[in-house]
Amino acid sequence: MASTTVRQPLTGLQLELLDTFSRQSNAEDLINIKNLIAHYFAQKAMDEADKLWDERGYSQETMTNWLNDHKRTPYKR
After folding, report:
1. Could you give the 3-state DSSP secondary structure of residue 39?
2. Average of pLDDT values for 4-22?
3. Count of Cβ atoms closer than 10 Å to residue 53 Cβ
4. C-alpha 41: how far from its chain's center?
């Protein structure tokens, strides 16, 4: 029999998710919940990126420079 060892206590978020997913749900509900969670974390990442963009004073010119900057390793022929 395989044993599972919990090395650290579960976070509040993990406990809430376990509770949510322990209820009888249909496949469509589970997909919708997964999509909500994915959207939440994607939005958090975009908000943080926007914050850094503003803090560092980036502009469209910055983005254009990044796109045109060639930082590849030159190879000898």
Report:
1. helix
2. 83
3. 13
4. 5
| Distance of alpha carbon 28 from the chain centroid | 22
Section 54-73 average pLDDT: 90
How far is residue 37's CA from residue 42's CA, in Å, rounded to a whole number?
9
Euclidean distance between CA atoms 74 and 19, whole angstroms: 54
Token pair, residue 50, equals 């926007």
Residue 21 pLDDT more than 60? yes
Tokens of 64: 């254009």
d(CA 4, CA 24): 24
Contact between 21 and 36 (Cβ < 8 Å)? no
Q: Write phi, then psi, for 25 (nearest 5 degrees).
A: -135, 155
Q: How far apart are CA 34 and CA 42, in angstroms?
A: 12
Alpha carbon dihedral 40, 46, 47, 50, in 10-degree steps, equals: -170
